[in-house]
């Protein structure tokens, strides 16, 4: 089973873990990692990607030990750090390595210990890597780095967090020299571009296992009312195995949780709940105390919650990649098929769900496009490099950034960025040398991350004496006051006090609560999906998307009813403009990529008919 190239100590660990054999991705990836290749591993959840990277990395770490961090394992979430640490501790204990985790919540005593005696393997986040560059003692330990594993790289590559990380990887080269880069990714539509995002202009390999071999997805139609969705979920979780119930927004998670939580065996999990509450829900599910965990994207990534037999998706998942990630949480074991069901409500939701399911089963996943030439990210990193070195030639800054694929034209972008930073006193110039300022360090201490900063108000439960979660400022200002009742974690809470940036609450009984809203919850539909939905409306070939006669009859009946009432069905070739008392509705439906010319036509039509214009 094991490769002859593996150290006997690593082979013994593999045997102790009870491996019956390597998975496909492991068989293909381990020899390439042992050979020292930069590698992107693309495979569904539960196929052994982490071990594909770490088994050969541990093997190579045994050959030569350094005096600082030998391996960095970077994940996008602190909660993933926690899981990875637990898994790595087992291997490290047996192989004689030290391992530690470092992120924003790491206690000061542990940080000092890491600075004085760095672990061989450091599990961390992109933002903490930024902080390490600012620490005079800590960054010296980066000189020993030989391996960097980028977990869930697909989650970062399309964001400015990812662009910042891409540049940080080039900054690391100045300390460690050329180290080996290994990316672990869910299925993406443009693997080579994601590999280049990770490696810059270096050669790389790709190991990809098609997702369609490992998933089974059904679409179930329910009524359009929210009560119909609740009824369908209730039926599934009463009669079925332990289930993750995915929804698209935190507000929907709270609403569904409020309806079901009183029946027992149900909990809620999303990013605006406190870390303590999320861990508690994860552990209850893992121990079998929950029949269902209602969650958002907070559970898409590989957080360990034990065995999941089935995944429910409430409503269209909006994106193929999102559906694949979510369904992949079921059957999270090597060789198992992941099974999921989409509960669609109404015609539009049904059509979109069918199209996304077809694309998922055929492995047609959206592309993830890195944010090339993002000026704010480049400015952030130029300021960070200046703080890191104190003073540095402008040409060296350009050289560092040129190595990252997200900076395709660093030579022309960096000089004006430096000028702007100097105008704001974040840097100063001395000829061709760039010199940091005290203001730059203060700026970076508040802006290590490219995640948009939103003011949050902690929810503090007076009874349990712990923080339940947080609310966005907009909801607090608009709706909350002393005595107000709102929903969080599926429960009702009454506001006792609002001061010092904290909402103090107590459990409420027999009251109606306001459902919180949070910023940035809506998921856009990719153009390719939208266009196919429009074509499906036009061709009516629903039988190609579902064998269910109920769905086929419903879709045909809906479209017949629209035409009987002299309605016009928006498709990939038809735009409809409707007049309603509240204003104008433009149905680009699914398929029209609204370009400047189409926008002008629509504006002219509306202006001629209603005497108004469209922004």
Sum up the structure in keywords:
alpha/beta; 23 strands; 22 helices; globular; 42% helix; 615 residues; single chain; seven-stranded parallel beta sheet; 19% strand; six-stranded parallel beta sheet
Q: How many helices in DSSP terms?
A: 22
In percent, how helical is the residue content? 40-55%
Mean pLDDT: 88
* Global geometry: globular
Q: How would a crystallographer describe the biggest sheet?
A: 7 strands, parallel
> What's the N-to-C terminus distance?
63 Å
Class of secondary structure makeup: alpha/beta
**Percent range for β-strand residues:** 15-25%
Q: Extract low-pLDDT stretches.
A: 590-594
- Per DSSP E runs of 2 or more residues, the count of β-strands stands at 23
Structure description:
The chain is of the alpha/beta class. The protein has 22 helices and 23 strands. Strands 3-4-2-5-6-1-7 form a seven-stranded parallel beta sheet, with helices on both faces. Helix 12 links the parallel strand 10 and strand 11 (292-295). Helix 6 (126-134) packs across helix 8, helix 8 (160-176) runs parallel beside helix 15 (375-389) and helix 14 (347-361) packs across helix 20. The longest helix has 18 residues, at 78-95. The relative contact order is 0.09.
How would you summarize this macromolecular structure in one to three sentences?
With 615 residues, the chain is α/β, with parallel strands linked by helices. 42% of the residues lie in helices and 19% in strands.
